[in-house]
UniProtKB/TrEMBL annotation:
It holds the Pfam family DUF1232. Residues 223-246 have a biased composition (Polar residues). Its main location: membrane. This is Uncharacterized membrane protein YkvA (DUF1232 family).
Length: 246
């Protein structure tokens, strides 16, 4: 008996159980009450995310659950009409079973508690593969649709994808503004008159120009010196004249 309890049930076993059949009939009530369905999607997404983060949820089950979230949302909003009502009801019933703590293997049992849930999700993916494939093809025709489970789980919080997009947009905007500012400075620098070099402050002033100015100053000083010396010499003419008189 203990051996049988340790053997995980197959998807067919879970789908044929009295518990799942009960949830299948309950699913109709969820579909007729949008607020209740929204709460179910939110709870199921939270549990799936928590289990996925700690590694207790298989990758295939995580991917299937995300597709189910999107399928239910698109069907309930009227965006996607290619799925039968029975398929939507089965998807809702799987989510009810997934969040229920009491099922074939109660969730509080470590490790084993999630096996029946995963088996049922795998059963849904396999049994209704044709419907799932049709939905995926429809999604490919809508490239602008944000296919994130968080958005379809009716969360009011900003999803990581939208936050990253907003950050990228802000970064691009800041980069463009910086480029425009740099271009404006370049234009102002090109239009401004060229500054005249200052020999007193610029150690790199042309050597030839400095030499020329020095030569000019030297010439002026020489003329001034010669003029001064000439004025101080005695007049030769006046002396000779005086000699002739005598």
């Amino acid at each position: 008996m203990a051996k049988n309890q340790q053997t995980p049930p197959s998807g067919n076993d879970v789908a044929g159980s009295a518990i799942f059949k009960k949830f299948l009939s309950t699913a109709e009530g969820y579909i007729k009450q949008p607020t209740r369905l929204k709460s179910l999607l939110t709870d199921a997404y939270k549990k799936a995310s928590d289990k996925n983060d700690v590694g207790t949820l298989a990758h295939e089950a995580w991917e299937t659950l995300q597709t189910m979230f999107r399928l239910i949302k698109a069907s309930m909003s009227g965006e996607y009409t290619g799925v039968p009502g029975t398929t939507v009801a089965a998807a809702v019933a799987v989510l009810i079973y997934f969040i229920s703590p009491i099922d074939l293997i109660p969730d509080f049992i470590p490790v084993l508690g999630l096996l029946d849930d995963v088996a049922l999700v795998a059963w849904f993916s396999t049994t209704l593969k044709g419907e799932m494939d049709k939905f995926h093809e429809w999604e490919l025709t809508r490239p602008t649709e944000v296919a994130t489970a968080g958005a379809y789980a009716a969360s009011d919080k900003e999803t990581p994808a939208s936050a990253a997009s907003a950050a990228a947009t802000a970064t691009a905007s800041a980069s463009n503004q910086a480029k425009h500012a740099a271009d404006a400075l370049d234009e102002q620098a090109a239009m401004a008159p060229a500054a005249q070099p200052s020999h007193s402050n610029d150690p790199a002033a042309p050597t030839a120009q400095i030499a020329e100015e020095s030569a000019k100053h030297a010439g002026t000083d020489s003329i001034a010196a010669n003029t001064t010396d000439s004025s101080r010499e005695p007049s030769t003419t006046a002396t000779n004249t005086g000699g002739n008189v005598r």
